[in-house]
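Minimal example, chain plus beta-D-galactopyranose.
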Amino acid sequence: MLASEEGNGPRRPKVRSVAGKQFPSDFRWGTATSSHQVEGDNTNNDWWAFEQQPGRIRNADRSGRACDWWRNAEADFDRMAALNQNAHRLSLEWSRLEPREGYFDDAAAGRYRQMLSGLRARGIEPMVTLNHFTLPLWVARSGGWENTRITEWFVRYARHCAEWFGDLVELWVPINEPNVVLVLGYLQGVFPPAVRNPLRARRALHNLLRSHAAAYRAIHAVRRGARVGTAHNIRLFDPAHKRATTDAWAAGLQSQFFNWVWLDVLHRGEGRSILWSGRMPECANTVDFHGVNYYTRERVRFVPWRIHYAFGRNFYTPGAQMSDYGYGEVYPVGLYRALSEVWRRYARPVFVTENGIPDEDDDMRPRFLLDHLSAVHRAIADGVPVQGYYHWSLLDNFEWAEGWRMKFGLIAMDPVTQERRERPSARLYAEICRTGRLLLDAS
Ligand code: GAL
């Protein structure tokens, strides 16, 4: 484990001049989005149904037209190109491509081909996620991630996608943040299917991992040159008091469950965690690259009776800079630590597949961007092969159970009028994308 910045390790001198912070020339500079959050009218999935239930989404917001991408993503592709971005991570909506069990919709596939070619025509390389939180209604109604049959359904869908889009896509991510699906959907009950049940969570864990592994093989069987990886939410869990061994133990337990058991299984075919430990040999060696979705870190205090919370009470570092609505501590060093740790553990190329901050008035995002990119640069300088950075997000979009309140966009977007307005950080990022260099002092 890397020493945290507050650890006992040698402190690095602060870098005053950053003229040398040049990124590799083939670095991918982009943004990330997901289908349900931007397309609009995704009426045939579990999230749309969830949004109709009272009390599920803050302010009773709905995804509705979202950012209108199904009709006109191209207008925003133009904006990406004007902002010098050369990469974009987007997701395909399973409920559009297979609206009923076994029925694959060529017209929907045609629209996605148009979008993917549209990106390429603008010099923007797509990275494609097959599942970003939403399930087709027919899958959700059959038990979703708890039904072992989901692996065979998912792999068939993955094969179709590889056949439909394989000539346009090299980088694939089968499942976005399976750990978030599990924790929010099956332990905290704030995402569908909104249950709090460790036994059901354990079933979902198995099926999420098996489905990733099966999709990995299916994509490779169709496109030998494809690269298939993860987009895993890595959160740092640090002990409340750095010398308290019980705090460190509880923090380690949480980190092992949230961050590592998943990736251990996908590499070695076995893993250990408080929820489940064991072997899944069929999942071994199914990662070509690691996508790190990094937002924040938590502190953990050991509390012996909180068995269901892995013996911890979690909180954000007192006095630390927080993002809007208490979304999390702003902790850029955490990105360096996450990238370094993923590389140290698994030795595969790494991407930052998400990183961003809810910040409506953009008073924190410019600094956030510089400091986090500085952390990426430091990781590269230390030998971590980071190949790209996808900022979350291009524009404000439907933020799941938080509705429209949290504004993650480089571009502000009004869901009622569909008006767009660049925030200052969009320009700042555009300059970095153009030069491949951090221009300002980000020490
Ligand atoms: C991630 C998720 C994204 C986005 C982001 C901001 O966990 O993959 O869809 O919502 O968080 O909260």
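Residues 34, 37, 176-177, 180, 233, 293, 354, 392, 399-400, 408 surround beta-D-galactopyranose (CB under 6 Å). The two ends are 23 Å apart (CA to CA).
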